[in-house]
Amino acid sequence: MAELNLHLKVWRQKNKEDKGRFVDYDIQGISTEMSILEMLDVLNEKLIKEGTDPVAFEHDCREGVCGCCGIFINGRAHGPLKRITTCQLYMRHFKDGETIVLEPWRAKGFPVLKDLMVDRSAFDRIIAAGGFIAVNTGGAPDANAVPIPKHNSEKALDAAECIGCGACVAACKNASAMLFVSAKVAHLVRLPQGKPEREKRVFAMLNQMEKEGFGSCTNTEACSAECPKGISMDVIAELRREYFRASLKQENN
Amino acid sequence: MKLDSKIPAGNLAEKWSNQKFNYKLVNPANKRKYEIIVVGTGLAGASAAASLAELGYKVKAFCYQDSPRRAHSIAAQGGINASKNYQNDGDSVYRLFYDTVKGGDYRSREANVYRLAEVSSNIIDQCVAQGVPFAREYGGLLDNRSFGGAQVSRTFYARGETGQQLLLGAYSAMMRQVGMGNIELFTRSDIQDIVVVDGRARGIVLRNMVSGQIQSYVADAVILATGGYGNVFYLSTNAKGCNATAIWRAHKKGALFANPCFTQIHPTCIPVSGSYQSKLTLMSESLRNDGRIWVPKDPKDKRAPNEIPEFERDYFLERKYPSFGNLVPRDVASRNAKEMIDDGKGVGLTGKAVYLDFAEAIQRLGKDTIIEKYGNLFEMYEQITNEDPYKVPMRIYPASHYTMGGLWVDYNLMTTIPGLFALGECNFSDHGANRLGASALMQGLADGYFIISYSISDYLAQLKKDKLTTDAPEFKNSEKEVDNKIKRLLNINGSKTVDELHRELGIVMWDYVGMSRNAEGLNKAKKMIKDIRDDFWKNVKIIGTNEEINQSLEKAARVADFLELGELIAEDALQRNESCGGHFREESQTEENEAKRDDENCSHVAAWEYSGADKPEVLHKEQLQFEFVKPSQRSYK
User: How close does chain B come to A140, measured CA to CA in Å?
Assistant: First the structure.
């Protein structure tokens, strides 16, 4: 176990209206066994004792699944490693004396609320628009009534693993939410239960995505590269097929 | 106060059908006239909000997170039980019921547990219809695995992310109703009080976590689905935001708090690495299907695990419990690990861990199978510890995980405040003194999808509609109280941070009110908790104002409540002069150091009534009747 002395550049912004700025902090004696959020806890304890406002950052489960945390670390969504969330980034991946730059997600669809916290409620509205299978409670047939090939079910789960953290948007130069939307569309259309509403769903979700101010997808693949769950670009290809298919079907009707 | 559990008469298997028939119904056209508040959007809250909105009620749903999808049910890994008997291994509703009552060490209500087992199958059907991608066999049918305390395979799962997939199912059902305008959604809302008018729960007061505004909402009924209070230990597997404020406020308004000392310590968590540690990460119980738990036989043996030969290892669970082996219930596994560690056989740098070894399983099944079954858990372990569990055994240690205790509810899930319901982990009803693995998800969804929608209609159908608004004095008084409390917290400007004080509380809880308890320690803990509480109200330091995002203020309000609840947990543990399930009193053990119940004197639910600040709480007892399962010394040997 080693200890690090670090230099931090942290984005501080009082509220939505404030313009915001980077503030420098030096921090000593950080154990390599700490997570980066625990490092921020230590910084905040220090700031509180000094009588200054601690850094606001979003976090909850701290085990990589709730999707709350999300910091742009040294220019990368969730930091330098692949396939992890911010809370799972441990300090052993940094060097003694290193400067670490911490910023919030930056996207039109995600306004900054304070410091490193952004408003991601747009994602909820996209799901509300069509990211579901419209079944009410009760009346579902026996769970084994429709066999689903193992491969399809696993592929559906690959897409369903999305945690809604928004790293895809933050990583995209167009601030597009295409990976998020596609993951849900792919999850549901890969299952027989999701097929009846496939056309309606793809239109509704894309439409809402556009309304929320997210950009268009230009296939740079930054989203998938930074996705903590490793959601593959396949889902975007699948969404495009779904959209094309739905459009053709609409013309034929 | 007389506690009436309202358990319907009749044979066990008919109670719930009879009760459903006897419930009064609200006419479909009238449902939209009733407003229901749901606090919490985990499995219980989201499923309740969705189901009630589908029926036509007007629902308002609240959560403290930025999105309902982030509630901590999302982190449940291993699975969900249901008595489908798809594996042809002899499962049945009765067996699931029996295993749950036994697993809970005969401290739960038979009727509630039977109903849970009865609706368990519907949950799986519902989830599959929603698109939950459960694990399947090559033939396309659903796969199962085994969990602790059961000798059948009845656990449905989606890799190590079952909670996530189930919650996303419930969340999508809920968001569909939000989109249709049947649910009004309030995120970043921190509930501060429950409002009772004319003896009935009629609303809530909350702090808007963005603006700091104190806001009131009125309804015809209030449902709490706010999860457990495991964060009273500071370090736990709960999310950082999980808190007891809503249920504690309800308790102070007249809802009895049942069995607070029934807390579950989960045996397989990643051990603490230092004082900065902010939370503990669970390694799913499902790992005990294939992982073998051991310590070196010789406490002085400090060799690396792979250098210790088979015959010098003690697979203590397999040795002591040959029929259940590594799959004994959580309380038994935790206590045995603690025993090994207390005997100096703990491993790792701190000596506070035991091994969970997959070498044999990897050899038997191949690495690919292990990756498929547990890949994400192994990755998470490596990320945190920098050790590769495919090559060296995992180090694990018990941690606070789940709370069986909670608000007392009757068979209809109503608390002692009429119109206030409690669902999921925040009630006490189904798990007795110990919850079996994969049963929390089952209970949350049973309560939310299949029970509350029936039982709440019975309550609403008997209500006289009125025109109450949040201008009523009860709301105004409550707002003022909340406002005063916040001002008081902000004005202390002492020298300790909220986390420091919370950590102090956690240490006391873990040392004296944790895995093993005795009268002397509990008395000591009560005094120490009180001292920390006094210190908190004199010495806490919170920067900033109320009228902004203020995470220290949010934490402080929660810790203030934990500091009261902690004392009640110790008191309850002190008054329960027996060992049962997760509650282990050193004074009450068998010769083999197993928990020894006292059925003659302690076969009851301890329900505590708040009686004013700094006054001792009043204990009420609901006697438990065992008509169908005969309590016996629990044995997993």
Answer: 5
CA torsion through residues A68, A72, A77, A83, sign? negative
Residue of A66, A84, A128 with shortest CB distance to B74: A66
Q: Give residues with Cβ within 8 angstroms of B171, minimum separation 6.
A: A127, B41, B46, B68, B69
pLDDT at B482: 98
Say which of B330, B335, B435, B533 is annotated catalytic. B330
A142 and A246: one domain? yes
Q: Is the pLDDT of residue B374 over 90?
A: no
Mutation choice for B interface testing from A53, A61, A112 by most B CBs within 10 A: A61
In a domain, residue B531? The reply is no
Q: Is B634 a catalytic residue?
A: no
Interface contact flag, A63 B282, Cβ < 8 Å = yes
| Complex prediction ipTM | 0.98
Examine the pLDDT at A175 and tell me if it is beyond 90: yes
Q: Please say whether the dihedral angle defined by the alpha carbons of residues A174, A177, A178 and A180, taken in this order, is positive or negative.
A: positive
Distance CA(B466)–CA(B234), nearest Å, equals 43
Residue B449 reports pLDDT greater than 80: yes
Task: Give the count of domains, chain B.
Answer: 2
**Are A161 and A41 in the same domain?**
no
Question: How many domains does one find in chain A?
Answer: 2
The partner residue sitting opposite B125, judged by closest CB among A33, A56, A143, is A143
Residue B532, domain member (yes or no): no
> B183-186 and B58-62 as β-strands: parallel, antiparallel, unpaired?
parallel
Residue A253, pLDDT above cutoff 80 = no
Residues in A touching B274 (Cβ below 8 Å): 1, 31, 33-34
Q: Does residue B59 belong to any structural domain of this protein? A: yes
On whether both A153 and A212 belong to a single domain, the answer is yes
Whether residues A127 and A242 fall in one domain:
yes
Do A137 and A17 lie in one domain? The reply is no
Q: Please name the member of B178, B240, B450 whose beta carbon is closest to the beta carbon of A62.
A: B240
Residues of A in contact with B213 (CB under 8 A): none
Q: Is residue B552 within 8 angstroms of chain A, CB to CB? A: yes
B131 vs A contacts (CB less than 8 Å) = 133, 156, 160, 187-188, 191, 193-194
Is B165's Cβ below 8 Å from some Cβ in A? yes
Question: Any idea which residue has 């963005």 for tokens?
Answer: B210
B168: contact with A, CB 8 A cutoff: yes
Judge whether B31 is closer than 8 Å to chain A, CB to CB.
Answer: no
Residue in chain B closest to A124 (alpha carbons) equals: B67
Name the residue among B69, B136, B279 with its Cβ closest to that of A153: B136
Residue B124 makes CB contacts below 8 A (sequence gap 6+) with A143, B80, B82, B84, B134, B142, B156
Domain residues for B367? 267-399
Q: Is the pLDDT of residue A250 over 90?
A: no
On whether both B152 and B281 belong to a single domain, the answer is no
Looking at the predicted structure, is the pLDDT value of residue B266 above 80? yes
From chain A, the residues in CB contact with B69 under 8 A are 67, 124, 127, 164
Q: What's the rounded Cα separation, in Å, for the pair B99 and A101? A: 53
The H or E element spanning position B551 is helix B551-575
How does residue A251 score in pLDDT terms, banded at 50, 70 and 90?
Answer: confident
Q: Model confidence at B285, in pLDDT bands (50, 70, 90)?
A: confident
| CA distances for A101 relative to A25, A71, A227, angstroms | 10, 10, 20
Separation between Cα atoms, residue A40 and residue A214, nearest integer Å: 30
Domain that holds residue A92: 3-113
Residue B85 touches chain A, beta carbons under 8 Å? no
| pLDDT tens by residue, A2-23 | 899 999 999 999 999 999 999 9
Q: B146 pLDDT exceeds 80?
A: yes
- State the nearest Cα–Cα gap between B46 and chain A, in angstroms: 12
> Are A90 and A162 found together in one domain?
no
Structure tokens at A22: 């980077």
**A101 and A222 in a common domain:** no
